[in-house]
Amino acid sequence: MTKPIILTGDRTTGPLHIGHYAGSLRNRLRYQDSHEQFLLLADTQALTDNTHNPGKVRHNVIEVALDYLAVGIDPSRTTICPQSHLPALAELSMLYLNFVTVSRLERNPTIKDEIRAAVRAMFTDPKHVRAEDPGQIEGNVVFSYLDAFDEDQAGLAEIKAQYQRGGLGDGKVKARLEDILQTLIAPIRQRRAQLSKDRAYVLDVIRRGTARARARTEATKRDVIEALGLFRL
């Protein structure tokens, strides 16, 4: 059976961080076998607010590719490709724009909820001044990260209960989170350091991924042109 296709990616404005791992990279690792996955190094999109510094965008194509490989993305199972080298994407965007209204675009939840999520993410419980004070779990960014990364959910439930009762300081909770994140990040950091010494390999991954993605996007464009009944040579 044909595998479902996933097209996703990241803007090449800087190295990825732990939020990317929680929000998308873990799922991308999970889908490598069950889906035909394309990871877009979105350098063209990154220019929207970086036209004054194209060197930054160009440099971070390699940096984001290194992050993908370091976290465990397998280029034999997942295609890594730069957006700027896939001209069919721009042509497909022009065709698809004919079917997207402004009201439909405004219903996109990411447009409404982003940069707000970024502001709220850093707040902890301002009333938890002393360890003996009862603390609030909801909206506490430390516990949000623990929910995402702590595999000992039973132990975490006990910590939450103690925090809410009072008697547990923020420092101990943060120490638990730090240990968990360090354990998670250490092998990724090590693989990235090794891969960064072999830039030729990373470039080869991008070149081979570009060739695969270009063939696929061109075929998709031909299908769309035919489906729309447009003139074909």
From TrEMBL:
Which terms are listed as keywords in the entry? Aminoacyl-tRNA synthetase, ATP-binding, Ligase, Nucleotide-binding, Protein biosynthesis
InterPro entries with a match to the protein in the record: aa-tRNA-synth_Ic (IPR002305), Rossmann-like_a/b/a_fold (IPR014729), Trp-tRNA-ligase (IPR002306), Trp-tRNA_synthetase (IPR050203)
Q: Which residues form a coiled coil?
A: none
- The leader peptide range reads none
Record's superkingdom?
A: Bacteria
This enzyme's EC code(s)? 6.1.1.2
Q: Which family does it belong to?
A: Belongs to the class-I aminoacyl-tRNA synthetase family.
This chain belongs to which protein, by name?
tryptophan--tRNA ligase
What species was this sequence derived from?
Roseobacter sinensis
